[in-house]
Amino acid sequence: MILHVDMDAFFASVEQATNPSLRGLPIAVAGAQKRTVITTASYEARKYGVKTGMAIEQGLKLCPNLKIVVANFKKYEATSIEIMEILKCYGVVEVYSVDEAFVDIGSQDPFKITEYFKKDIRKRFNITCSVGAGENKLLAKLASGLRKPDGFFWIKSISDIYELPVGEICGIGKRTARKLALSGITSIKDFVSAPFYKIKSIMGINGIRTLCFLRGDLKDYVKPYEDKPKSIGNSMTFDRDLFHSQEIYKALFQLAEKVGYRLRRESFEARHLSLIIRYKDFYTFSLEHKQNMAFCEEQEIFTIAKDLIDSIEIEKPIRLLGISVSRLVPSIQQRLFSNRREGCYRAIDKIREKWGFDIITWGIVKDKYLHNKPISPAWRPEKVC
Question: What angle do the packed helices 205-215 and 196-203 form, to 10 degrees?
């Protein structure tokens, strides 16, 4: 039995729990930048239509008495780590994000286990969570979203959710749901009953995997959160739109610097890089690069990202840039022919480990773009107690 634990409006709930004057009020947590977006809205604000990713100005139009709270990501990380430690008392924990986790409880009663840790979390932090139960992670995650907030739902049989729209399945977005609908697949029952070839023609191999999980033909396992990440990335939303190439290059190097440091800290190298670009009108797309030679240095990451962005014509000012690397492989700890540049990186990394990342930098980014660092969707605790 696997549980998916999803904290309810996590950032907003933590702010309301630690600041009694915010309780019961419509609040939205956002970054400190002038042009930031809403990271999380409390349930009081969601009643007005305020939601994650919405511009603050739009949120205030929907809810004029909306209170904007500047995000404190260190506080959310610290709270999340403690919550994960509580969950470890009840089973094997896999951190899915800063406010989500899977828990393998074996043959224990999911009702009782959920009741126990809900009580522990509420007592310790005065916040709630929604929990889904199922025989695999896909079903558990689907179930947790059906009884929010502070709910519990157990999918004992796939027939329990036959009537739900196919878009409720994790990994099926609006665009894919529209493609499925054109083939007559609108409900989960339609999806489960569809032949393999039809699902594969629309969703590829991932569609077949999803179908097998729903049918119970595939099993998955909860991996302890000590496991290493599958990707590493960072992004920045700028206070003003960027259009000139030198400004864009500076931002790219700053992102490459952070990603390179995180790769080396985790003892990884990468073979795939994604460059995410968002224009001022919020149109977002990505450019991809794959290579057989692994990389982990910021100069290498920057060169790849620069070549990608130089390969297209920038049509509009850029609001956000992001770099994400994947196809991670263990790094070679000692290369046969060590060079001066590698020694330089080792020295820089040691200084940062002792004094902090921003204590040293490269000349090209000595004037950094200052931004409130958000929590990545692939966040994992840095320290395991």
Answer: 130
